[in-house]
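In pairs, describe these two lines:
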Amino acid sequence: MIRLKGIRWASIVAVAALWLAVGTASGRADEGATPNLRTCGGKAFPLSVFNQSAGYQKEKTALAATLRRELKEDPFLMPKRGWRVVFKDAKYAELVAGKPTRGGNAWSSYRKVKGRWVGEYYWSNCWFSPVRDGASSGEWYLSKGQKVTPKTTSLKVDVYEMECNSGRPATGRVLVPEIKYRPKWVIVTYFIKWKTGSTFETCPSNPPVKKTLRLAEPLGNRTILDGGFYPYPRRVPVGKPNPWG
């Protein structure tokens, strides 16, 4: 994620892969996800922020002025409207454009330097990952060749690590999934435990880890959703093979 011609281009993955590393775990990875908190890779924030009115780009604040300047400098990269502050303190802020969509949302971060807000990073596809201490959410799909019925209580799934891991599977680091049961759906979230220490990693796609998903009760006629993104993509019945459902 670098800054180029006044705009932060987090989507230049090939450049980011040269320096991206997996950091030391900040705590135990068995404490479970923090309820209702999501992240775009920076600070955690509640989904309730999207109940607030949009249009921060029109506000008369120093941070909003910095956003407007960036929108003017590159009129084709960043969305022009619908911005909200999802996190802000005295020295750091994050903004998101629009309400959560399955196609991802534009996200931008800012840091105060010598009393002025300065653009830091920009990412065009935030999928609002859940927050868990010492781990990052994975992505999972139903393995091929299975018959799912209302009596199903176990499924074979492929779990992918979304962080850079040099094209290797997250063997031994896939945690027991968090499962929430609802009348019409089941939400299954897999987390991948961070590596300890600091290691240099490149960012090709990682192969999956094969796991067995065990349900505490028969599936019935419910849909199974992947809790690693928001809005939740459908995994059973099988939907489109991409993270935005």
